[in-house]
Each structure stands twice: as structure tokens, then as C-alpha cells.
Batch of 3 targets.
Target 1
Amino acid sequence: MSQISKLGYVDNKLGAPSSGQQTTRILFNTIEAPGTTSSVSFFKNFQGLTNGQTNLTQNKLDSMESMVIKTISFLQINEDDALVPFGGTNQQTCSIIVGNQTVVKNLPIQFNQGVNGQAFDRLHENGGAFSDDNVPPGTLKSTTQVHMPVEIRLLTDIVIPPQVAFEVRVESNAGVYGPGAVVCALSGYGKIFSAGNTF
């Protein structure tokens, strides 16, 4: 079943409106200065976050909106605004909770850590693994990012229906998330409210 068909099926089962503008959708949420901890929960707290730190005001989509998650990404930024390995490359798992159901359970995420990790798929193999050590003297060094965000493409279509609370939880054995910020982004296909019938 395609993501468009699955979203239509779920919306229909829940009695949600099937009309609306189809769109590419990215939801993101930031946690400032999480420090060293065994658990971080994204899409739970929106207080004090700016438009650049999240694009939601609550952990639910509006009554006329829904989404299929295709990719989940995690990144960690230090105080100098540089990407660093998410959680200090410690062993970590990710769970996605939609409503009262865990739809992704304890998915290991430390493998897609760029330089030190092994990719789940060939698409991300050696992502971000780059060294300037072999550049001849006098040659301009590359500005390639050494650390890449953790990015996982989901094989199943995870649906966030309208007005249903959701959360992304990362658990680890004392993950080092530091004094900077960590970000979770969910991307995929969605429907947004559209007042008109023609475009």
C-alpha cells in the first residue's frame, strides 16, 4: 500500500476529512541543553521554543491535518553551532508513540553516526566520513561536514492521524547530549487544511 493510500485509509477509518492539500511535511522539535541523560523525549515540550526550534505548538496535528512518517532524523549541535555525534555515539534506541500505541519500538540508532557508524542502508554508508589529512600543502581544505545527522528511512508507513498526540523517545545508557541542543525531525507525506476546492 502506498503512503498516499495508507494515509487515506487511516483518515477514512477515523472519520477525518479526506479533502485537503497534499504536501511534503517535516515536523521538528528542539531540546536545549539536555546534558547527560538516559532519556530524551521530543514533541513533548514547546514552551519558549522559537519558530526555528520547532514548527508545532502542541504534540498533535490540527483537526484537518495528518501525516505519514517516512524518515526520522536526529542531530546534535554544540555551543559553537557545529554538528557533533548524536548522544556521543553511545548506544541508543528510538521509540515512536502515536496515541497510546508504540509504533516503532527500541530501534537502534547509533549505527548511522557517520564517521564511527555502520549505516542501516547503503544510501548512508560512510555518510560524513571525510578527512583533510591527505590534502597536499597549499591546497584549500574542504569544508565537508565531518559529522552527519542520524537519519533512518522507515520501511513501514507510520501514520500520525489528526488530533492524536505523538512523541519520539530516545533512550540510552547515559547519552552525552551536552549543553548545546538536540533536534528530532520527522519527514514524509501529509495533508494540510485547504479552504478551497481548486488550486
Note: The beta strands are 21-32, 36-42, 66-77, 83-84, 92-98, 101-108, 150-160, 166-176, 181-192.
Target 2
Amino acid sequence: MMCFATSPEIGRIATTLDDGRAPLAPGRSRTVGISGCGKLCAVACCTLVASKIDESHACKLDSVIVDTGLRRRGLASALVSTLFVDSLSEPNLPISSIYAHSVHPATEKLLGGFSFRKGRAIGAPISSFQVDPVSRDRLLARCQDRLRGISARLRLGCVYCLKGDKRARPWCMPARH
């Protein structure tokens, strides 16, 4: 039995990994996740699509799913940064554009922080980023900076938690109200 992610804003979240979808060629889909205290906390995936015109590829951010109780902790930003760094750093994979259907408000906000162009108000809102050598380097630097900051904060939280330190704020546990 499959358990699908849902969002109060948009309902069921479909991904390239759903049953019934055609399998992608090896290396054309990338999935990353973050686990804490033995449980999966967040996952993101992207699909790489070859251009029919030239040798370039488009990178479609497919889904970003964060456990409801763990949102607003930087997990989505860390995963998306990882996907972008991983994809843009591959030497034999020239990427000319990155895009996402930004129907979820958090996705649109996240991508805006990476300097993506906002989607149109009508039709399917698609946020996009055109990749050239300068914009590629800027996006890579932005992603690497975010990743360093978020990773350091999460690791420190784990160290405090494992030591039983009073400063521990477990990021992998839902906040208690």
C-alpha cells in the first residue's frame, strides 16, 4: 500500500515516483531525503529532461515534501539546494533551465529565494530559472551557502540532543504546543 503526501493547500501531491507512471531512464530522476532519529523527515525529487533542440537539459523540481510538524526549519531549502548543486555540478549534464509548478505557496516562496521568476497568475503557475554561466555560478554559490548554514544548524541540534544538553531543540521532532 502506498501512502501519498498531502498538503492542506493543494491536496494530494503527485510525484514521478507514483505507481502507474512510466519508469524514467537511469540518472534522469534524482531523489534526496533528510532523516532524523531514525525517521524520514523530508524528501525532494527532480526530473532531468533532455532538450529536443540541442544537448542541454531542463531540470524540473518535481516534489518537495516535508512532514507537517517539521515545516519552517529549513529542510525543504536544504533538499532543494542539494538537488540543484548535484544537478548543476555534473560536468556531462548541461542544464539550460530549471522550473517547477509552484502551486504551493511555500514552493513559490522557496524558489523566490533562489531568484526564480514567479509564475503567471493564470494557468499553471510555473516558476523558472534560466541557466547561463553567470546565473549558474550565482545559484550554485547561493545553494552551497544555504546548505552550509542549514547543515551546521541541524548538526548542532543533533549534537545537543544526543548529549542531553539543555540547549537541545530537536529539529526532527514536531514542536510541542
Note: Helices lie at 75-88, 105-112, 133-163.
Target 3
Amino acid sequence: MPMFPFNDWCDEAIYQDEMARMHKITPKQDVIDSLYDEFKRISNDPSYKPQLTKEQRHWLLVALSGQIVALSMELTDDLAFVCEAYLKSIKNRDKKVVEYIANLERQDAQDFFVRVARNITEAVEAVGLDPTACSSDQNDRYRSLFEQIQEVRDHFWPWYNGYKHGQYATPIMVGGGTPLEKWGLYLIPKKLERDALNRVHTKGKERFIDTVRFVDEFVKLAQIAVQLWDETRKRQYPKVFGKVLV
């Protein structure tokens, strides 16, 4: 429970400390786990929610997988914000962690992952370690994990952005190919390609992702993000606030 008063004046040291301690991203992983459990039950147990038709089950699976994708990508944003905020506080020798978090934007997260995925020193410092005091394997582990995150973000960013922050990534069922039906997210073109016969081209291959198939990958992505967040916070909080995080 917070130790500072709500809607009243508060000592800044107490406010900064309590807000930093209470800032957590783990509840989002709890939501992902719940969505994943529901996803698996609907996928594997026909007796679960028998009132749903086959088509309704497909639509629900797409919706569940889309939410898992969005929340997992969101967790990687959260990880970047926390890493950057603690680095700024340590550099500036202040305790303004939550203020820095509040002022970071999504492009800052993009820039963060590009940087730490390429540079071992910056990757290791971002999680609160001294690269000169770690083994080369340990150092490369963090850079490699950040690189994994960056690669997933780069590939899936348009669908995440369009599904979470707009309406141009929409759940659909598509036909053709093998299997004949696929369910996932489709990027609606901002400008359709038309021909003289009043036809439009659906641009399927580059605009569609089978989110149902990628669910396991995004659950793992969320777990990596939360683990790195937890390590970072436990190491960096004492440096900023002068006490162990409990």
C-alpha cells in the first residue's frame, strides 16, 4: 500500500521512492498467462464452452492471440522505459525514475532496443551490471536477449501498432493456400491497389500474420521482458535510492 497521501502534498523523497517501488509490469504477464490458459483450453478441449460454434471458437482464438501479441509487445516497451529511466537517474544523480518513465515515448523504446541489441556494453549497463566485471558469455547473453526482442519488435511492429493503437490491423479469416483457412491479423492498406476492372488486390502475404500460430513465441517474449525488468529493477533501485528493494 502507498505510504504517501493521495491528492495532497507529500514529501518528494517519499513520493519518488514509493512510486518507483510500486511501478510494476508483472500484472501484465499475469493477464497474458490468463489469456494463454483460455487460449489453450479453447484450442484443445471441445467440451470447454460447448455453446460456441466452430467459427465462434476461431474468432475467439484470434482475439485472444491478438491480445497476447499486443500485451507482449507492450511489455517490451515497459522494459525499455524502466531501463532508460534508471540509467537517467543514475547519470543525473537524482531519484526521478518515475518522472523519466512518464516522459518517455514509444520511439524512445524503439531507439533503446536498436542501441542495446548492437552494443554489448550498453546492453549490460542497461540491466545494471558492470561489463568489465562480467564474463564475456554473461555480457553477450544480455545483448543477445535484447537482440531477440528487437527482432520480434521489428517484424511485428506494424500489426502491434495497428491493433493496439489503431484500427488498421484487424482480425480476419482468409481463404486459399494450405490450410484453406487461416485466422489472424491483417493490415488494411491505407491506399488500396485498384485496377480497371474495379478490383482491389488484397496483398495477403505481406499484410497478414497468423497470430494463432505465434502465440507461444509471444508468451516467451513476455517472459523474457519481465525477467529482464526484474533483474534491472533489483540492481538499479539500490543505486538510486540507497536501499535494497523489498
Note: The first helix runs from residue 12 to 22.
